């Protein structure tokens, strides 16, 4: 039984066609197939068997792998089993039409992208807009011209090649990010371990020495930092304490703090250059100026070390209330009298490790019971406030006054820090390490005598 030709199919009669048309037709079907590393897979969807046959024949001649379906439902199942690179679907089909199929195909295709061409006799602008809105990439008007089909598929090839190239680059980026994440995790674990080691340099943040008390604050801006605070007592009524800020940030600065911490060890006084043994019986504190010179000499002989550090190192004679200190490029210590009056002390000085044979100046203070001495790093005074300005010394005086009602040195230090954080431009992130050392002279248990 003969079947009536589909009116939407373009037919070709070689006996009646124009010679030029015959040449074009021969060229369409016999065009050389381009070499491909892997053949593109095409899914042809049309309820017309003849229309599918024509499209399938053309595409196979051009070197494509082709599958076909007679309905949208069947096409979805085939696409799920073998995701296509191209889809050519008729618009007008019984049951699920081309627009519905296109929408569902896009929803279910996931990250794999298929270039979708709608075959239609519609050419109105609204119809094209509906097709694009459904997810179609291109349109072919029936009856289909072999040359136009080839041109549209070639255009789709270019887009798919770019899309595949982007997918490859994205995979490379994801793989690189994964490797970077693995490396970061290793570094993060190492930094956490380094933080544990650095924390061991400051085992006690608050210690009572009878007639005096030392409280410490250490807040690095990262896992590890370049600030160091500490204290040690070689015997009764004698205390050494310090505030140090190593140049730079990060691992190098943290390694320097570990090295300096070993020079000023609280646990091994034999290795502490601020302590000297006398008569093989007891330890005594060396003068602060001698300690600064010794530290400077050690750094200057190490040619491979480019870092330097600022410091205030002080000793306290708890029996007489005498504090002696040396300032090496560090912010000026703040003397807080028991009556609430305050003033900065110190001579400024040159940082440790910059110049050989530098001369340091020593300052001596007489403290009364209730007086306090605050050593701090520039993480306080150079903190950026919400106004955009730095805190500076005036701002520090204000924060200290607001924190003075705190009953203990530890509470005073914590209050001072949190008041700073509340005023900073970015409360969630420190731009620099913040640290401080507070010495409180109580005079408790000793008689006060003149020097």
Task: Describe the model.
- It is a single chain.
- The chain has 451 residues and is α+β, with helices and mostly antiparallel strands.
- It has helices at 19-30, 49-61, 72-81, 98-108, 125-134, 146-199, 250-263, 288-300, 378-381, 392-403, 409-423, and strands at residues 41-45, 65-69, 86-90, 115-120, 138-141, 206-208, 212-219, 227-235, 238-246, 275-278, 282-285, 309-317, 322-328, 334-336, 342-344, 362-366, 372-376, 434-441.
- It is rod-shaped, with a radius of gyration of 41 Å.
- It starts with 18 loop residues before the first helix and ends in a 10-residue tail after the last strand.
Main beta sheet strand tally, sense and closure: 6 strands, antiparallel
- What's the helix-strand series? HEHEHEHEHEHEEEEHEEHEEEEEEHHHE
CATH class category name of the largest domain: Alpha Beta
Strand content: 15-25%
CATH names the topology of the largest domain as Phosphatase 2c, domain 1
Number of domains: 2
SS element count, helices:
11
The end-to-end distance, rounded to whole angstroms, is 129 Å
Helix and strand composition category: alpha+beta
CATH superfamily of the largest domain: PPM-type phosphatase domain
Can you tell me the overall shape?
A: rod-shaped
Strand order of the largest sheet: 6-7-18-17-14-15
**Secondary structure: helix percent:** 25-40%
How many strands in all? 18
Distinctive features:
single chain, 451 residues, Rossmann fold, Phosphatase 2c, domain 1, 5-stranded parallel beta sheet, disordered C terminus
